[in-house]
Specification:
The protein has about 210 residues and is mainly alpha-helical. The protein has one domain. About 80% of the residues lie in helices and about 0% in strands. It has 6 helices and no strands. The chain is elongated and about 60 Å long. About 50% of the residues are buried.
Length: about 210
């Protein structure tokens, strides 16, 4: 590609291997919880739980992209991060639409199922966040997977709070509030990733060849 100097340094083999192993752990956890939350969200009627299952699916796709991009030049890793950031923003818009739809129906979800699956999801995301914590200050590709896991852990705490709120009030509003919070987190995280990825692409394009 014109203006792209693909000779730029990729991550060291040791660093890449550790990051790859962390990605595989996170990928397996996210795929497993995606299936669990899809079933649990359908049974409980929870918008936040169902939205979280879609988030697990999106994160799994993000980890797959990261695994493919690992070892490529900074330019192409930044392109992969741009795609992931865009997906996070699209997901946020989708969740907002789901909240509006759920609000129009007004049926409160089943709190016990929400709480049980929320605990499982929180444990999985804490493990993912811990194994990816070392890479939180890396390039946009590494930072994006850390932000995904961090946002998911925050979202799962919110799901548990929503389950308590639904149980106490017998209202769908706590569930819808959590889904809205997830949308804000996804939108904010996506913007951060896109901003950093664009800066990295500009840096690569305008760095002179030695």
């Amino acid at each position: 590609m014109a203006g792209c100097h693909c000779h730029h340094e990729a991550p060291t083999k040791t660093h890449s291997k550790k990051f790859r192993n962390a990605l595989w752990i996170a990928l397996v956890l996210n795929l497993s919880l995606f299936l669990i939350e899809v079933i649990g969200g359908m049974q409980s009627g929870s918008a936040s739980l169902w939205a979280d299952s879609l988030d697990f699916a999106g994160d799994s796709f993000n980890y797959i992209i990261s695994l493919i991009a690992l070892g490529m030049s900074l330019y192409w890793r930044a392109n992969a991060a741009l795609l992931k950031g865009s997906m996070m923003i699209l997901f946020a818009i989708f969740v907002v639409a789901k909240v509006v739809w759920s609000y129009s129906n007004g049926q409160p979800p089943e709190a016990m199922t929400m709480g049980f699956i929320g605990v499982l999801a929180l444990v999985a995301n804490i493990i993912s966040a811990l194994v990816l914590y070392t890479f939180r200050d890396g390039d946009s590709n590494m930072r994006s997977v850390w932000l995904c896991s961090r946002n998911d852990a925050i979202g799962n705490v919110a799901v548990l709070l929503a389950a308590l709120g639904v149980f106490g009030t017998q209202s769908a509003l706590p569930d819808l509030l959590v889904a809205s919070i997830m949308a804000v987190l996804g939108f904010s995280g996506g913007l951060q990733i896109i901003k950093q990825a664009r800066a990295e692409r500009r840096k690569v394009r305008y760095t002179p060849v030695h």
